[in-house]
Amino acid sequence: MSVDIDWNNLGFDYMQLPYRYVAHWKDGAWDEGTLSTDPNLTLNEGSPILHYGQGAFEGLKAYRTKSGKIQLFRPDQNAHRLHNSAEKLLMPPFPEDRFVNAVKQVVAANHEYVPPYGTGATLYLRPMLIGVGPNIGVAPAKEYIFDVFAMPVGPYFKGGMVPTKFIVADQHDRAAHYGTGQAKVGGNYAASLQAGKFAHEHGYGDAIYLDPIEHKYIEEVGSANFFGISKDGKTLKTPKSPSILPSITKYSILTLAHDRFGMKTEETKIAITDLDQFGEAGACGTAAVITPIASITYHGHEHVFYSETEVGPYTKKIYDELTGIQFGDVPAPEGWIVDVPVN
């Protein structure tokens, strides 16, 4: 590889790469779309994305395998989730097959920036769909932009997986039931900044959100989904709620836990006062894959799970299986991996 980058010391930061994909929707149809070398988008000052948050995005990664080939992990699921987010915000969905093709084009065009196997680093992709054009009333935009850009990022855990402490943000809600919680939209993340800042300033990895109606049940861990594993390692549970983003990583974990490790899996309400049922717990998402939860503090009481310093064996087993699939070291379930040809 000819790109001069210190692959072993990458953070999770923006980096301008040579190519991105851009398509426009106008007069009722998407144009053909194209690769672009311009990292800037020109928006009218009345664009609904700026005033009313009419926009959604995705996050996924490209991985280099030991043999040197490049592969994507379940991009069809990101395409489908963006489709659902678009419908929630009354935006024209970008066709799902074209979404996958656009991502492949961006990866192939920037293939020199896909980090080498063994560094733990990946190529992170950010597809987004935004409402643009002159508009000032509270109404859907008349024009839209679909954009996919990428950057190499380092492994989320420097020095390996380290259990992290979290605190319950019982004075904050991330999203409302039947609102935009199940869509990947910017407003959900803006709503998390205040609680996240408080958690970080007090020595916690992030805030845990409870359901917005009763404030009794776990919803999300920062911008990640929660899971808990029973003390005997036979059951894995995740929260069920209409305001939780359906994490692709979470559903992959549920599948692997059940199909490969024989665990019982369940999406159900998980009360914040019922943490004793779990021997291990974690947060899962694209960036970190799995963040082991060392403890959760609620109303001044700290509940410790497996260990404050060591990763639990069941969490580690699932993490190794999932990352093994992503980097091509473990056979993947059918349809989970998409190869990216590079000319």
Automatic annotation (TrEMBL):
Keyword Cell inner membrane: no
Keywords: Amino-acid biosynthesis, Aminotransferase, Branched-chain amino acid biosynthesis, Pyridoxal phosphate, Transferase
A Pfam family of this chain: Aminotran_4
Catalysed reactions, as listed in the record: L-isoleucine + 2-oxoglutarate = (S)-3-methyl-2-oxopentanoate + L-glutamate; L-leucine + 2-oxoglutarate = 4-methyl-2-oxopentanoate + L-glutamate; L-valine + 2-oxoglutarate = 3-methyl-2-oxobutanoate + L-glutamate
Keyword Secreted: no
Pathway it works in: Amino-acid biosynthesis; L-leucine biosynthesis; L-leucine from 3-methyl-2-oxobutanoate: step 4/4; Amino-acid biosynthesis; L-isoleucine biosynthesis; L-isoleucine from 2-oxobutanoate: step 4/4; Amino-acid biosynthesis; L-valine biosynthesis; L-valine from pyruvate: step 4/4
Molecular function terms, GO-annotated: branched-chain-amino-acid transaminase activity
Domain of life according to the entry: Bacteria
GO biological process: isoleucine biosynthetic process; L-leucine biosynthetic process; L-valine biosynthetic process
Family, as annotated: Belongs to the class-IV pyridoxal-phosphate-dependent aminotransferase family.
Name the record gives this protein: Branched-chain-amino-acid aminotransferase
Organism encoding this protein: Lacticaseibacillus chiayiensis
